[in-house]
Amino acid sequence: MRGDLIPAPRPSRHASLAPSEAHAPAAAPCPRLHPRSNGQARMTAHAAPSTDHRPTHLRRALARARKRRGNLPRRPTLGERLADIVAATVGSWRFILVQSVLLGSWILGNALFGQRGWDPYPFILLNLLLSFQAAYTAPIIMMSQNRQSDTDRARAVADYQVNIRAEAEIALLHEKLDLLREKQMADLTDMLQRALARIETLEGKHA
User: Fold this and answer.
1) What DSSP state is assigned to residue 119?
2) Nearest to residue 140, comparing CAs of 99, 94, 79?
3) What is the rounded distance in angstroms from the CA atom of residue 143 to the CA atom of residue 84?
4) Residue 106: closest CA among 94, 119, 115
5) 82: buried, middle or exposed (CB in 10 Å: 19+, 13-18, 0-12)?
6) Do the Cβ atoms of 63 and 57 come closer than 8 Å?
């Protein structure tokens, strides 16, 4: 019974083909065409940016500017910024007016109260406060001035270097103009000599 239920083997696909087709070699794959033609590839190759890294005059000038910028003073610290703020505040008319009003009020109040005032004549506490103010304000102003002088000195050096370089460039341009003028004069002299020689030759033929 089991032998009758076994299905018959199916014929293979290659067996159904003809002998010539079964042994025929496989076709070579069709080559894929590049989306860009030769002309487009050539135009793309010519349109590619050039990687020329030669040191041009502009690049040298930028490098020198970056070097000068690196020689400038560093960024001010918190203490230096505070010193600048204090110096700007103390050296203003607003500070003078406010301090004058405070001093006048202090002296007037103590004069009105007499010996019962908080700082009677000769105003020892006021002198002490003004001494403390002068003792701390003067060094802070000097710190701000020193930092500003360093910045001005560095900028002056940078300006001097720029002026020297500009003078050298102008001198070089004058030399180039002189050489060009000498070359033009030499060419004109040569042309005149050849013209004179040709005229003499023509006169000798007619003579």
Assistant:
1) S
2) 79
3) 8
4) 119
5) middle
6) no
C-alpha span between 130 and 59 (Å, rounded): 57
Q: How far apart are the first and last CA of the chain?
A: 139
Q: Which two tokens stand for residue 196?
A: 């004179």
Q: What is the pLDDT along the chain (207 residues), one digit of tens a residue?
A: 344 444 444 544 444 444 444 444 444 444 444 444 444 444 444 444 444 455 566 567 666 666 665 555 568 888 888 999 999 999 899 999 999 999 999 999 888 887 888 888 888 999 999 999 999 999 999 999 998 888 888 888 888 888 888 888 898 899 999 999 999 999 999 999 999 988 888 888 776
DSSP character string of 17-67: S-HHHHTSPPPPPPPPPPSS-HHHHHHHHHHSPP------HHHHHHHHHHH
Structure tokens that stand for 147 in this block: 């930092």
Largest CA distance in the chain: 140
Separation CA 140–CA 113 (nearest Å): 36
Domain residue extents for the chain:
77-198
- Alpha helices (H) in the chain, listed in sequence order: 2-5, 13-16, 19-22, 38-47, 57-71, 78-90, 93-113, 124-206
CB 143 within 8 A of CB 77: no
Q: How far is Cα of residue 64 from the mean position of the Cα atoms in its chain?
A: 11
